[in-house]
Amino acid sequence: MENTTFEESIAQLETIVTQLERGDVPLEEALEAFQKGMVLSKQCQDTLTKAEKMLTKMMSEDEEVPFAGEEEA
């Protein structure tokens, strides 16, 4: 799980939520899936928090920093 991208983690989390919402998962599997989902959720939240801090820092600096792939005008 540590080497997965944000998008992969979100996809795994969506799969887990779908499985749990169906309600046809045995209790032990549901508990394991829930636990894995909580870990994935925390990883995703941490990634978003880091991205937000980085963007806030970039935006608060005096000089303008173009995003990758953005052409200068």
UniProtKB/TrEMBL annotation:
<keyword id="KW-0540">Nuclease</keyword>
<dbReference type="InterPro" id="IPR037004">
    <property type="entry name" value="Exonuc_VII_ssu_sf"/>
</dbReference>
<comment type="subunit">
    <text>Heterooligomer composed of large and small subunits.</text>
</comment>
<keyword id="KW-0963">Cytoplasm</keyword>
<protein>
    <recommendedName>
        <fullName>Exodeoxyribonuclease 7 small subunit</fullName>
        <ecNumber>3.1.11.6</ecNumber>
    </recommendedName>
</protein>
<comment type="similarity">
    <text>Belongs to the XseB family.</text>
</comment>
<keyword id="KW-0269">Exonuclease</keyword>
<dbReference type="Pfam" id="PF02609">
    <property type="entry name" value="Exonuc_VII_S"/>
</dbReference>
<dbReference type="GO" id="GO:0008855">
    <property type="term" value="F:exodeoxyribonuclease VII activity"/>
</dbReference>
<comment type="function">
    <text>Bidirectionally degrades single-stranded DNA into large acid-insoluble oligonucleotides, which are then degraded further into small acid-soluble oligonucleotides.</text>
</comment>
<keyword id="KW-0378">Hydrolase</keyword>
<dbReference type="InterPro" id="IPR003761">
    <property type="entry name" value="Exonuc_VII_S"/>
</dbReference>
